[in-house]
Design a protein that fits this description.
Helix content is about 40%, strand content about 15%. The chain is built from 13 helices and 14 strands.
Length: about 400
């Protein structure tokens, strides 16, 4: 079929297998061009198919030579529709990894479920015996609780008062005002249930019970704080409450893992264009500004650069972790530099639809968004018919 981007709001409903392969290959080549990492041997990535999770799998494999198991929930292609981007990402990753004799296997299903935890445990026991690094990088709008069966849906809302600010329709090039009503108590609790630390703790507790964590095992979950500009809808909003819960959970897990001389960590990462960030009001406009200001300074990074630094300069550095007063690893330091944030704060009130292209790098935002789905990749002929059906070599699917 002829595969073109079909964008609806902040979602692209198509993905291109050849384009995603090029994007994944570019990330792999970046890691291979850097110094090797003396790091983990056996890695489990929960949420492994896109964004920071995919970058973690690439860095672990091609930077540290680790064996990886990736867990995700993605859709395979059929005759009428393309697969999801994460499916194609994983297919490309595995094809390249296997060609270079790296162990890589994948499990497709609801990572919140007991079934997927059990299937993952079986695969670890059969193939790897134990895991020494667990990356938790899930981004889901919905969760079915594996014990109670209750369905939780997250919301992206402020807490306590109505929030009004600017946002952008990136593909129409329109800057507009957005007003978001405050979340109810139930919405806050639901968002914490989906995006907080309960499932992370369930995974670690289960793996410990099954004796699948190696001595000295590390687990890392990803978080974000961001500037004051986005605090009302992020840090101080419903998602911020969920991230607080994630941090508190990390502290609990760190105590539990001390029995194995292990550790649980939170990594606060930079704002990047991802499927998740595109859904958050205000954030796409902020990122389009951030891209411009950081590119001008020469410090702009994507997921792969961030995660390479996380592994090389923090998790497996001889000089230790770079943490804040709460013990969180901070690899968002370039984003949060005073001069970067001062420039953004000065430009923010001036942005209109008319000057959007001049004051921000909205073109780069669109390009990076398109590349999430395999579009705008160099050297790909998008006017050529392409077979959407691509197999993942090792896939074990339990779509619950």
């Amino acid at each position: 079929m002829l595969i073109q981007p079909k964008i609806r709001g902040f979602i692209c409903t198509t993905a291109h297998p050849k384009g995603t392969r090029k994007v994944v290959s570019d990330q792999i080549n970046y890691v291979k061009s850097k110094d090797p990492i003396k790091g983990p041997k056996n890695v489990l990535i929960i949420g492994a198919s896109t964004g920071y999770g995919l970058a973690s799998r690439i860095v672990a494999t091609f930077g540290a030579g680790a064996k990886t198991i990736g867990v995700f929930y993605e859709k395979e292609a059929d005759d009428k529709r393309t697969a999801s981007a994460g499916w194609y990402n994983t297919a490309a990753f595995e094809q390249i990894a296997h060609a270079e004799k790296h162990y890589a296997k994948s499990i497709n299903g609801d990572a919140f479920s007991t079934d997927i935890k059990q299937r993952t445990a079986e695969l670890i026991r059969e193939d790897l015996k134990q895991i020494d690094l667990i990356i938790y990088s899930l981004a889901s709008p919905r969760r079915v609780h594996p014990v109670t069966g209750q369905v939780y849906s997250s919301v992206l809302k402020p807490i306590g008062q109505t929030f009004t600010s600017k946002t952008v329709d990136a593909f129409r090039g329109e800057v507009k005002e957005i007003t978001i009503e405050p979340a109810t108590d139930e919405e806050i609790e639901n968002t914490i249930a989906v995006m907080g630390g309960e499932d992370w703790e369930m995974w670690i507790d289960f793996l410990m019970k099954e004796n699948l964590l190696a001595e000295g095992a590390t687990t890392v979950a990803y978080s974000y704080i961001g500037p004051e500009l986005t605090h009302a809808v992020y840090k101080e909003g419903t998602i911020g409450r969920a991230k607080d819960h994630l941090r508190i959970t990390g502290d609990k897990l760190d105590k539990k893992l001390k029995n194995l001389n292990g550790r649980a960590l939170l990594s606060v990462n930079k704002a990047v264009v991802t499927q998740a960030s595109a859904a958050i009001p205000v954030v796409p406009l902020y990122i389009s500004l951030l891209l411009k200001v950081m590119k001008e300074k020469g410090t702009s990074e994507g997921c792969i650069e961030q995660i390479y630094r996380l592994f090389k300069d923090n998790l497996y550095s001889t000089t230790g972790l770079h943490t804040d007063e709460l013990g969180q690893i901070r690899i968002d330091e370039f984003e949060m530099e005073k001069d970067i944030q001062e420039k953004i704060a000065a430009l923010w009130p001036k942005i209109t639809t008319e000057n959007l292209e001049t004051l921000t790098d909205i073109k780069e935002y669109r390009r990076e968004f398109n590349r999430l789905f395999g579009f705008d990749a160099e050297g790909i002929d998008y006017n050529q018919e392409t077979d959407p059906i691509v197999k993942i070599e090792s896939i074990s699917s339990i779509l619950t």
